[in-house]
Every structure is written in structure tokens, then in C-alpha cells.
Design brief:
Blueprint (H helix, E strand, L loop, with lengths): L1 E4 L8 E6 L2 E6 L18 E3 L2 E7 L17 H12 L4 H17 L2 E9 L6 H12 L5 E7 L9 H12 L3 E2 L9 H18 L2 E6 L9 H12 L5 E5 L8 H14 L2 E4 L1 H7 L15 H6 L3 E4 L16 H11 L5 H11 L1 H6 L8 E2 L2 E2 L7 E4 L4 H7 L5 E4 L2 E5 L11
Parallel strand pairs: 5-6, 6-7, 7-8, 8-9, 9-10, 10-11, 11-12
Antiparallel strand pairs: 1-2, 2-3, 4-15, 13-14, 15-16, 16-17
Protein name: Amidohydrolase family protein
InterPro entries: Amidohydro_3 (IPR013108), Metal-dep_hydrolase_composite (IPR011059), Metal_Hydrolase (IPR032466), Metallo-hydrolase_Enzymes (IPR052349)
Keywords: Hydrolase, Metal-binding
Length: about 425
């Protein structure tokens, strides 16, 4: 089978030859002997690699208002509401909600997904449910599971054992929330424990880092130092990192250099953080997101993530990664033509790098690769500006050479007279 598409607004249409689920040829293939192959006409549509969603909560998804609403919109109330909901979780409940969300993500072109799972439940009900879905949907998308200690590690010592058990059961990585621990010293200790566990297991570390407006929250430098000391380096991601928006310039550039040196990825979550942060600020209020542009300019890999979808922490969300790019375009002042293209890169290549997909991701440095999985998205869109401006679902989603999903474009019927 070979398809035909267009990379970028000014790119000429080209063909992709596919054999055995991998990209076998790229270029002008018509009349080259490939004509006997089954042909799918991409119609000159915009061709993108799959979205890589590097930070999402499948256990809390679709629980907004059940049993209570987070009326204040704050993180503290969100945690209280989720704690009450977590007490009555069942495996069937988590599977049903998470499966609905997974199917939404697939339709929007997500083929790689890193799921945060709260392991505060002694029975690990949510973890068991998400691991089951990881296996069930493995032909349509790759799910990485992160054992997430919502209540902390030092503040809730049982969580360390639960994270170890989660790794034994099949989780891919561990996490920490150092800014929610009782003291800075306990925050640092929680990171040391998480990194040591990951080092022993060869696992990922995905830290909820400095998700606060407190400029004195400086756990990112600790993550970078531990990443270098343990050799985990690029297997470490720091999510949120909102305090960086408040750092003085000299300190920010120091820590950005450490992050680059360590090989960490920054995962920004502009949707939820735009409404959850800045609540303690007087006017002018902070924008609620980390320094996306500045980290990128410092040579740090930056991924954008959709994060929560209709949860006690964020009652909105569609599952479309382009929504995160759209919010980032506004809050990060990145509406230039090349900047919009860079934002698309942050929900594709940036997410793939944060998840350390390597050769499993068929797109690198702005180009598809021969021999890579034939997984890509086809959009009815002109370019990155049009894509982020309208945020359509992909017309077609291909996974390893097979059509995995398609969405008919909505058509408005206008009645005149």
C-alpha cells in the first residue's frame, strides 16, 4: 500500500510506500512499479506523525462532579474531592471511564500515551485497571504507566512500597510530588527515594515538579542533579514546572542549563495550569504555565500535554492535543508562523522524546524515516496555523500501515430565507 500526502504548507505532495506495516519508500512512487500495490489517496492532505501525549490521568478521567464539584477550582479542593472518589473506586469503574477516554484519544490521533495512576489506594485498583487496558489496546496505541504518589512519599510512607509493587506488576515508571511534601527537606528526600527506585528497576522517572506559584520551589534543580548522578538522564521528565515562571532571570538560566546538561524533558500542561495557577497572585496575575519558549531556546526538549480530562482538578477537556497547543500559543506568546509549527512539534516529536520512544516513533528531525513504523495522521488543514486555529480531528489515523480511525468532517447546513 502506498499513500500520498504533504508535509507543511508549502511542501509538494509525495508518496509513502508501506510494506509490512513499515515505511518502505518515500518520494514520487507513481509509475515506479508500486502501482500494483493497494493505493490510498491522501489527497494532498497535511501529513503529521502521531501525537504523543506525555501526561494524562486515566484513573481520574470523567469524574468531574462525581460525587462533588471542585467549586473553588483549586488544587487543594481537587485533591479533597478526588480522595473521596478514590475511596469507592472499582476496577470496572476505572476501566469503563478510562476506555472511553482512550478511544477519544485514538480518534484524535494519539498513538503514544503516558498515563499517571494514583497508587494511594492500598489495593491498587486503578493500576490494575489501567494495566489491563494497556494490554487490550496495545495494537492501537502504546501506553506507558507511571506510578504516581498523589499524597507524597515522605508524607505517606506507604506509597513507597506501593510504587515498588506497581513496578513489579508492570508499571513503566515512578513519580514524586516534592512541592506537596511537608518541608523542602522531605521534598528532596522523596525525590531521592523515587530516583533510587527507578535506578534499581531501570524505570522512567516522571516528576510532578514545582506545580506552584511559589518562586522558592526549586525542585527542578534537584531532579537535574539526581538525573546526572544516577545516569537516568533522558529517562527523566519534569511536568508542570510552574514555579519557573517566577524565577529571577539569573537563576532560571542556571537551572535551564542544568536541565539541558542532564537531558531532562519538560512537560508543560497549559490547559489545567492556566486555570489552577496564579490564584494567589495579586494583579498582574501570572499566566499559569512554565517558560515554554525559554526552555526550548535553551536547548531543552519541551512536550505539551493535554493532561486532565473532566476531572476534579479540571472539569473541561476533549482529549485533543491541539487544544494544549492552542492554549500554549496564547499564554507563551507563540503565534508566529514558525512558532506555531514548533508547538505542533511539541505535541508530536517533543512528546515522543519525553517518552523515550526512540525508533518506535517514525518521525525524527522533521522527517519520516524509511524502516520506521508506518504510523501517521492525515488532516484537512493547510499548515500549523490552520491546524492550531481550528483544531480538527485527523481525517484519517494510520497505525503501522493500517487504518485505525477516521473522522468525517463536520458540515454546517445554513438555512437562508
Amino acid at each position: 500500500m502506498f499513500g500520498r500526502g504533504r508535509e507543511g504548507a508549502e511542501g509538494a505532495p509525495f508518496d509513502i510506500g508501506i510494506a509490512g506495516g513499515v515505511i518502505a519508500a518515500i518520494g514520487e512512487l507513481s509509475g515506479s512499479g508500486a502501482a500494483k500495490a493497494e493505493e490510498f489517496d491522501a489527497g494532498g492532505r497535511l501529513l503529521l506523525p502521531p501525537f504523543a501525549e506525555a501526561h494524562v490521568h486515566l484513573d481520574t478521567t470523567l469524574t468531574a462532579g462525581d460525587p462533588l464539584w471542585n467549586e473553588s477550582g483549586t488544587l487543594a479542593e481537587g485533591i479533597r474531592v478526588w480522595t473521596s472518589r478514590k475511596a469507592v473506586l472499582t476496577k470496572e469503574d476505572v476501566v469503563a471511564r478510562a476506555e472511553r477516554t482512550i478511544r477519544l484519544y485514538i480518534g484524535y490521533g494519539v498513538q503514544y500515551l503516558r498515563a499517571m495512576v494514583d497508587i494511594g489506594d492500598p489495593k491498587l485498583v486503578a493500576l490494575e485497571a489501567v494495566l489491563e487496558l494497556k494490554e487490550r489496546y496495545r495494537e492501537l496505541l502504546e501506553i506507558q504507566v507511571i506510578a504516581f504518589p498523589q499524597d507524597g512519599i515522605e508524607s505517606c510512607p506507604a506509597n513507597e512500597g506501593r510504587m515498588a509493587e506497581a513496578l513489579r506488576l508492570g508499571a513503566d515508571g515512578v513519580s514524586a510530588v516534592p512541592h506537596l511534601e511537608r518541608t523542602r527537606e522531605e521534598g528532596v528526600s522523596s525525590l531521592r527515594r523515587a530516583f533510587a527506585m527507578a535506578e534499581r528497576a531501570g524505570a522512567f522517572v516522571h516528576v510532578f515538579c514545582d506545580e506552584t506559584d511559589d518562586e522558592s520551589s526549586r525542585f527542578l534543580e534537584v531532579c537535574a542533579s539526581l538525573a546526572m548522578a544516577t545516569g537516568l538522564g533522558p529517562r527523566v521528565a519534569a511536568a508542570h514546572v510552574n514555579a519557573a515562571a517566577y524565577y529571577n532571570e539569573a537563576y532560571f538560566h542556571k537551572v535551564a542549563g542544568l536541565v539541558r546538561q542532564a537531558g531532562l524533558s519538560i512537560v508543560a500542561c497549559p490547559l489545567i495550569n492556566s486555570v489552577m495557577q496564579g490564584r494567589f497572585d495579586a494583579y498582574p496575575k501570572g499566566r499559569g504555565i512554565t517558560r515554554i519558549r525559554e526552555f526550548s531556546e535553551a536547548g531543552v526538549n519541551v512536550a505539551l500535554a493535554h493532561d486532565d480530562m473532566r476531572t476534579p482538578f479540571y472539569p473541561l477537556g476533549t482529549g485533543n492535543p491541539l487544544d494544549a497547543a492552542h492554549m500554549a500559543a496564547h499564554l507563551a506568546h507563540m503565534c508566529g508562523r514558525s512558532e506555531l509549527a514548533e508547538l505542533v512539534g511539541m505535541v508530536t516529536e517533543g512528546g515522543a522524546e519525553a517518552m523515550r520512544l526512540g525508533d518506535r516513533y517514525g518521525y525524527r528531525e522533521g522527517a519520516f524515516r524509511i524502516g520506521a513504523p508506518a504510523s501517521f495522521l492525515l488532516f484537512d488543514a493547510e499548515d500549523a496555523r490552520d491546524l492550531i486555529g481550528r483544531r480538527p480531528a485527523p481525517r484519517y489515523v494510520f497505525r503501522e500501515g493500517r487504518l485505525a480511525a477516521e473522522t468525517a468532517p463536520p458540515v454546517a447546513r445554513v438555512w437562508e430565507g
